[in-house]
Design goal:
A hairpin with a 2-residue loop joins strand 20 and strand 21. This protein is an alpha/beta fold. Helices cover about 35% and strands about 20% of the residues.
Length: about 550
């Protein structure tokens, strides 16, 4: 049975000439799991919001949307609230109450359900999602992963028939993201729930999806089964931004130009590599590890807690980051990564230990001198860096604050905007950009201050594979100029291909660090899919390029 049909849907935002959606058509059967993917700004979020009437953006709409055979405009608000669930990218943007139990009950109360029914649904939902232990807790004390699980639980308490998710794992660490994705698939399998999920995290979702819809410039360029998607994209000549983000098994298979059905999962990739790897185990040379240069940043026995009676978030943390080094910090949600960055940026002061920038105590940088050509900080939420009504005005205002002459500011703004592919968005309000576009715009603003040190909290959040590759090239160029980059990231593959050195932060301390190949080869969970595929066949191969290099060598 068809639950949703979209016919020739086009949409244009107010004051915009270009269409955000162009002739989009597809249908969804009841119980299907649809993965929606494409470059940042391709129209995924716009499409999902148009499928839920209450969240539909202002603008001009052409075409038609049918829900259970009925035009969406004829679906009542109550039907939409109950039957069409929506989980947003930012976990905090969907939470409206102060207590977990009240959040679970909030939507049900608005439907006017009896108290007994609300209590039963809340208890049943809390049990299913495993949130009984923090049922009575405060919502502002939850981790990012817990908040997103709570958002999903609140939606499911309404008993929806269609679940829409807009990049729901964008702010979660790999383990929390895997658990969240597994929960969504469980709902799809056990309840027959229809799911449409927009994501850039394709490695784990491709094997779970029934169909993959790829969008480019507001149009659908491919609608096929996961294993057929690469061939469909190549035939169409479209989706170049999606191909580099396909699961590692598919990229290895494609790079080795093998005939037949492409593997999708790590298990299938290992089976394929077992048949292709017949000349014995080989290994790549070890990496140098730390960059040889003067120390740019140093933490010595840093301890920090948010309240006097609260436990320490950082527990004697020590680290040295050298000039020109790209240093990636990984770890679970709540391990202290963002707090560490805040201390490095001088935004929080540890109660013990010291933080130094180029050998000078951070407290000795007076009158904001630390932020004038020395250090720049990209926070986890890029919206917080924008203060003007347009992106161009925001970037220009920063140039003025840095003392740049007006005649230089315009050229500098255009140069940075072009570098990150947001030059066409300069007239837009920063809050009207997609999550990936906001991230790229925030990076452009960050570099306008010409910092020697860049601190970045989740810099690839919301970015497609092509944008990540552009960012990697930018960071590598900056590193070559002697600039230092410290990034906190959940994006393991990006860290593996971009960083000079990686570190694992756990319980407020760095437990391990090293060059990417050595670091990720020793991990089971915090490692790349390529490493899982190659383990036992090729030593210390952690990227798709590593595996392909060794596999091609075995063929010679």
């Amino acid at each position: 049975m068809e639950i949703l049909r979209v016919e020739n849907l086009s949409f244009t935002y107010p004051t915009e000439q270009a269409q955000a959606l162009r002739g989009v058509s597809f249908s969804v059967k009841e119980g299907e799991f649809i993965l929606l993917c494409g470059a940042s700004g391709c129209g995924k979020t716009t499409l999902l919001r148009l499928l839920k009437e209450e969240l539909a953006p202002e603008g001009t709409t052409e075409g038609a949307i049918y829900y259970k055979g009925k035009p969406l405009a004829e679906v009542t608000r109550r039907e939409s609230a109950e039957e069409v669930g929506f989980v947003m990218q930012d976990p905090d943007s969907q939470i409206v109450t102060d207590k977990v139990w009240h959040e679970l009950a909030f939507g049900l109360e608005n439907l006017g359900l009896p108290r007994s029914a609300i209590r039963l649904r809340a208890a049943e939902t809390a049990g299913f999602f495993g949130i009984s232990d923090w049922f009575g807790g405060n919502t502002d004390e939850l981790s990012g992963g817990q908040k997103q699980v709570l958002n999903l639980a609140c939606v499911m308490a309404m008993h929806p028939a269609l679940l829409l998710l807009d990049e729901p794992t964008g702010q979660l660490d790999p383990i929390a993201a895997s658990e969240f994705i597994a929960t969504v698939k469980k709902l799809n399998t056990e309840l027959g729930l229809t799911v449409i999920l927009a994501e850039h995290r394709l490695e784990e979702l491709f094997p779970l999806a029934d169909r993959v819809i790829v969008m480019e410039n507001g149009a659908v360029v491919s609608d096929a089964r996961p294993c057929e998607t690469p061939a469909a994209l190549r035939r169409s000549g479209k989706g170049a931004t999606v191909l580099p983000g396909l699961p590692a098994a598919m990229r290895i298979f494609d790079a080795l130009e093998t005939e037949g059905a492409s593997p999708v999962t790590v298990k299938e990739g290992r089976a394929y590599l077992r048949s292709a790897c017949r000349n014995g185990t080989r290994a790549l040379p070890e990496e140098a590890g730390s960059v040889a240069g003067p120390v740019a940043l140093e933490l010595k026995n840093v301890c920090f807690r948010y309240e006097k009676t609260a436990p320490d978030v950082l527990r004697g943390l020590s680290a040295q980051i050298r000039e020109g080094e790209i240093f990636a910090v990984l770890g679970g949600n709540g391990s202290g990564k963002t707090t560490m960055l805040d201390c490095l940026a001088g935004l929080r002061r540890p109660y013990a230990g010291s933080v130094s920038v180029y050998g000078k105590k951070i407290k000795d940088y007076k009158n904001n001198s630390l932020y004038r050509g020395v250090l720049s900080y990209l926070p986890q939420d890029p919206k917080t860096v924008f203060v003007q009504d347009s992106l161009e005005a925001d970037l220009t205002a920063l140039c003025a604050a840095m003392g740049k002459p007006a005649e230089e500011s315009g050229a500098a703004v255009r140069e940075q905007a072009a570098r990150f592919g947001v030059e066409g968005l300069l007239a837009r309000h920063p809050y009207d950009l997609s999550g990936g576009e906001q991230q790229k715009a925030a990076l452009a603003k960050m570099l306008l201050s010409d910092p020697r040190i860049l601190l970045m909290d989740e810099p690839t959040k919301g970015m497609d594979a092509a944008a990540k590759n552009d960012l990697m090239e930018t960071l590598r160029r900056l590193s070559g100029e002697g600039r230092t980059v410290v990034m906190v990231t959940h994006d393991i593959e990006f860290a593996a291909v971009c960083a000079d050195r990686c570190a694992m932060l756990f319980d407020g301390e760095i437990f391990a660090e090293g060059a990417p190949r050595a670091f990720f080869s020793d991990n089971n969970f915090y490692t790349t899919a390529a490493n899982r595929i190659a383990r036992g066949f090729y030593d210390n191969a952690v990227t798709v390029e590593d595996v392909v290099t060794l596999a091609l060598g075995n063929r010679q």
